[in-house]
Amino acid sequence: MLGTGILKGMVETAKNFAGSYHDPARLTTVEYPEQRIASKENARQFPMLIHDTEDPMKGLRCVACQICEKECPPQCIYIVKSKDKRADYKGQMQFYPATFDIDISVCMSCQICVEVCPFESIKMNTEFELSNTDRFGGLLIHKEQLAKSNEHYRKIHPTEAAASDAVLAAEVAKAQAKAKADAEAKAAKAAAEAKAKADAAAAAATPAAPKPSSPAAAPAAAPAA
Amino acid sequence: MAELFQAIDQFPVILKHWLMSHAAGVLPEWVLPLLSAALSITPILAVFPLLFALTTVVERKGLGRIQNRIGPNRVGIPLTDIRLYGFGQFIADGIKSLIKEDVVPRAADKVVHFLAPIALLIPVLLTYSVLPFGKNMVPLDLPQTGLLFFFAVGASTELSVFMAGWSSRNKYSLLGAMRAIAQMVSYEIPLILSSLTVVMMAGTLSLTGIVENQATVHFGFLHDWHLFTPWGFVGFCLFLTAAAAEANRTPFDLPEAESEIIAGYFTEYSGFKFAIFFLAEYLGLFAMCGLGITLFLGGWLPPFKFLGFIPSWCWFLGKLVALILLFIWLRGTLPRLRTDQLMGFAWKFLLPMTLINLVVAALWHMSGGAVPVLVRWAVGFVLLAVPYWLLGRGFEVKFTKREYRFAN
Amino acid sequence: MSLRNMVHCALSLVLTFAGLAGLYLQLNAEFVGFTQILVYVGAVSILIVFAILLTRSTEPKDEPATVTPWVGISVAVGAFLTMALAVLASPVGKRLAAPAPEVSVKTLGQKLMTDYVLPLEVMALLLTAAMLGAVIIAMKDKEGQR
Asked: CA B398 to CA A209: how far, in whole Å?
């Protein structure tokens, strides 16, 4: 009959009204600045730069390769490569970003920079309270603000950070293994050289040692570079 | 004790008399009628806009709760942590609309655009002048034409709506105005016809006379509200439906359907003019509720005789607030109608029902005294329920399980 | 007719209707006065305005009116002055107002149903015929479109 639907609907809304006062399942609103819900692990807002050491500026993983700058669809990343080099986490000499700016008013949080980064350096942050009174300068984030510690990354994205750490550990292990292998090869070569030298000395017993040693040392140094 | 209650009941009247008697010696004679008018108008201008302001907050909070939200609860006293459960909101809103820029479209008809909100607010305020807010509390008692005055003045708001919509030179505004006018004209007929039953029974157009007609007492405690009769109950339901449509309330708020035509006829209004439209709309709703209370809910009368010690104006205000809450509840429940449904409902359902209700009221009036009450009730019930059922069948939608070709 | 815009003309007409209602009220004819507002200001004006909007497809050009307003204004002022002088000169104002007959709605209704029942019925018939005609015209329109 006409009108029964209206009555049913009104009963439903009345239930909602009454329930919102005592039933937490009905009233799911969180009063935001005072109460907060924990950030979801897969949440992402804008990129950040990961650093490993105490000093954020010295420990940045970024080597200013500029891949992210080229890949960024809205082109919101601006990087200036440094003139000098410094040692990275593996001890290799690398460039570092003299300037690294992200314009978050342009950034669309697509995460492509994260996916193309070969150095596990740029990651997505979950910081969202970025409102600012200066809509141009205030939304251009510099590397000082972008730098976040690896501990922070582990805290906000535990699973992802573990994977990232594993990749880095594998890299380090590989580098160490290589260094070890090189060292062993060097030692073996040196031993071989020493032996050859001894043999030569024994054979000739003349002071001509420096000359044959230099061509033998050159191939041993080449793989290390 | 009874005298004390009487004094509280008539407090506004006594106050006015006291002020007038003191002013009579001081002020020149030609000022006195003006002063008397001003003293009658001031409470209306103070109470009802304040009620409007509170209603906006209550409505937002209530709708929030209905939709499982909290609603506004922040704005309290500035510079303190006192939040007043968000009831400072309306002051903030008022200040905001006062200091906002008043944008008038370049192509708009400036004079008509300016006049429209004024021409809307004035008739709406005028309707309050004939409503009896309490015993002896009616600003303008028209013994011959009270109800007619209400409808005549109320009908002239349609033109203001047209002025607003046309002068904005905006297609949405004009569409909204057209919709509003078509709706108001269609629903005015059931509104007037449903009120006519009361006029037939009371035999007067005077609103105070109608209230006094309901003052007789049944069983020693129950006041004879018109609601407590078959034609009165149906008439009240029809009246409320038509009143909601007249006041552009949900589910009849097509003239301002945001999803289709932005804000309807006041799309091009901003700042305080917009606030005036908003105010006029709510005041119109309150006036309609006040009229419904006067016609069907016994005006200032309490439901039971032994509750008579509560002042009459409290009863009026209480019933008004109850009806406003009902409208908020309806707004939180019902979706908006389509234009063809709206017109079909007015002409195919409300109008026949009001006509049948007129016949039932006439039968009730004629059979008074001669026929036993139960028989009258039974006849009235049958005469109203059967057409209701028959007419209502046309509006029932037969839902079949919808088949989606690609989604399944 | 110094207004070029038809809607402005219609709105002015409404103002005239309201003024007429005011005159009725001055004559103590409350019922007629308020009915005038209800019917003319509330309904007839809407009809006129709708008719203007639905029939005129183009906006009127903003060309100046053919007749300058000053002629109309001077004629109106002259006519008003003549009438006012005539009324003031006549003994109408000096006569005591006749005691207003107590015309209640009840007597109005009874008059309509007894003395004036024929005009009422004729009008009702006329209006019904007009309504039927309108409905038939609207129906034919629809069939023609199909």
From this structure: 106
Torsion of CA B306, B307, B313, B317, to 10 degrees: -140
Burial bucket for residue B295 (CB in 10 Å: 0-12, 13-18, 19+): buried
Distance, in angstroms, between C106 CA and closest chain B CA?
9
**3-state secondary structure string across B256-289:** HCHHHHCCHHHCCCCHHHHHHHHHHHHHHHHHHH
pLDDT value at B406 more than 90: no
pLDDT band at B286 (very low <50, low <70, confident <90, very high): very high
> Does residue C98 register a pLDDT over 70?
no
**Can you read off the two tokens belonging to residue A7?**
């009555």
CA angle C111, C114, C115 (to 5 degrees): 70
Chain B positions in Cβ-Cβ contact with residue C35 (cut-off 8 Å): 148, 152
B296 touches B227 (CB < 8 A): yes
**Which residues of chain A fall below pLDDT 50?**
209, 212-225
**Chain B residue closest to C35 (CA)?**
B152
CA nearest B157 in C: which residue? C42
d(CA A197, CA A205): 10
Whether the complex's predicted ipTM is more than 0.90 is answered with: no
Coil, helix or strand for A174?
helix
> How near does any CA of chain B get to the CA of C82, in Å?
31
- Which residues in chain B are contacts of C105 at CB distance < 8 A? 144-145, 205
How far does Cα B93 stand from its chain's mean position?
Answer: 23
- How many B-C residue pairs are in contact by the CB < 8 A criterion? 58
pLDDT at B1 over 80: no
In Å, what is the CA distance from B338 to each residue of A81, B179, B183, B255, C146? 63, 11, 12, 11, 24
In 3D, which of C40, C52, C24 has the Cα closest to residue B156? C40
The Cα–Cα gap between B11 and B5 comes to 10
Residue range A158-199, pLDDT digits in tens? 888 888 889 888 888 888 888 888 888 888 888 888 888 888
Chain centroid to Cα C53, Å, comes to 19
Q: Which residue has the tokens 């016609």?
A: B295
B189–C contact, CB cutoff 8 A: no
**Mean pLDDT for all residues in chain C:** 77
> How would DSSP label each residue in B352-382?
HHHHHHHHHHHHHHHTTTTS-HHHHHHHHHH
Which helix (H) or strand (E) is A48 found in, with range? strand A47-51
Neighbours of chain B (3+ CB pairs under 8 A): A, C
Query: Rounded to whole angstroms, how far apart are CA atoms C130 and A137?
Result: 72
pTM for the whole thing? 0.77
Please indicate whether, in this complex, the C-beta atoms of B148 and C43 are within 8 angstroms of each other.
Answer: no
- Cα distances (Å, whole numbers) of residue B135 to A33, B6, B130, B215, B310: 51, 10, 13, 12, 12
Token duo for residue A155: 């805290």
Q: What are phi and psi of A56, to 5 degrees?
A: -60, -40
Cα distance between the two ends of chain C: 42
Please check whether residue B384 is in contact with residue B357, taking contact to mean a CB–CB distance below 8 angstroms.
yes
Which residues of A are less than 8 Å from B393 in CB distance? 2
CB B170 within 8 A of CB B103: no
For B352, phi and psi rounded to 5 degrees?
-60, -40
**How is residue A173 written in tokens?**
């292990």
Interface chains of chain C (3 or more CB pairs under 8 Å): B
Q: For residue A218, what pLDDT is reported?
A: 47
- At B169-197, the pLDDT tens digits run 888 888 888 888 888 888 888 999 998 88
Instruction: Characterize the bridge pairing of strands A140-141 and A97-103.
Output: antiparallel
Give the bridge partners for B304, in sequence order: B222
Between the alpha carbon of residue A127 and those of residues A60, A156, A163, B100, the distances in Å are 19, 10, 21, 34
Q: What is the dihedral of CA B270, B275, B276, B277, to 10 degrees?
A: 80
